[in-house]
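Continuing the series of single-chain predictions for the mutant panel. This is the parent chain; the variants come on the following pages.
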Amino acid sequence: MRILIALGGNALLRRSDPMTTEVQRRNIMVAARAIAPLATEHSVVIVHGNGPQVGLLSLQAEAYTGAEPYPLDVLDAGTQGMIGYLIQQELRSLLPAGNQVATLLTMIVVDPDDPAFAGPTKFVGPVYPKEAADKLAADKGWAFREDGTSWRRVVPSPQPQRILEIEPITWLLERGAVVICAGGGGIPTMYPSAATGELVGVEAVIDKDFAGELLAEDVGADLFLMATDVDGVYVHWGTPEQARLGQVTPEELAGYRFAAGSMGPKVEAAARFAAKTGRRAAIGALDDIAAIVAGTAGTNVVARAAPGPGAGPEER
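Parent structure:
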């Protein structure tokens, strides 16, 4: 079976964690221990988030007054290499010596006319109190939005259109390698003019779950699995009626509303994959990854509801 696993950036560097290499390595070790057993039995592709990391690199670049700060596409490339290296190293330590693991810098084409450029929504970087966010907005021209009780920078998040490195990704998978690619949603690029064919970077961050869904389609994944820090998708969250969805269809998911800044993109990506391919998408906790693959944990999104042993989708 071919499995695409999308690891959230906050699973690799949690909201309350110090932004250090040691902390990231510790969290990645947990992820690698969950993924390694799957990689010995299945064809595995790994996509990871980079929201906290790309924001930190952006701050570090802005603090250096001796040169122009790096644009977001270059920072996206930097985090692909940095996080990919850490995942690759941990997996190599756990897999048999003959198993290959490769990190591939991945460019993804977006539409220059995507409406996301007019309304930044993608959170990047650390959280700030309101006063600090206001100062950064004034000093650097950044846009901010509330994230819980704090504020975070937001940048445009256009929809992914085409993965430029899909052929080498496929070649590596066919030779049995675990492939880490499209990190942080891929490096955003565009062709501003069809006449010249010139490829340029874009000041944006592509949503990792939407990029993962497109990649899962392109590589023919049997399962598109989004590993996060909760055990599934909940409806009526924070109320006495809250319940975890077990097995649902894309049509059933369309009847609920989910937060755009957290579970919303995951639900939309899962529904899109299941509806377009007829194959399964799942959302659940990293610790439950083996059970999610078996279909006994997490929220499983399928094209058609399968009959259960007398249990509805919120009871399974």
